[in-house]
Specification:
three-stranded antiparallel β-sheet, alpha+beta, Ribosome biogenesis protein Nop10
Amino acid sequence: MHSDIRRCSDWEATHDRPVYTLGDRCPLCGAPTENGAPAPFDPTDRYGEYRRRARPDRPE
């Protein structure tokens, strides 16, 4: 499954919130865009446990 909606790659430094577009460049700052969809979930992922263990804890 492929998403046509793209997100500004530099939104955290430039914008207050993510800027979404269909183009290859951000309409506000001109930075390149990236796919805004999360990676697909795979229940057979052999390394998922290690990746979750390496991820820093999220603030509650």
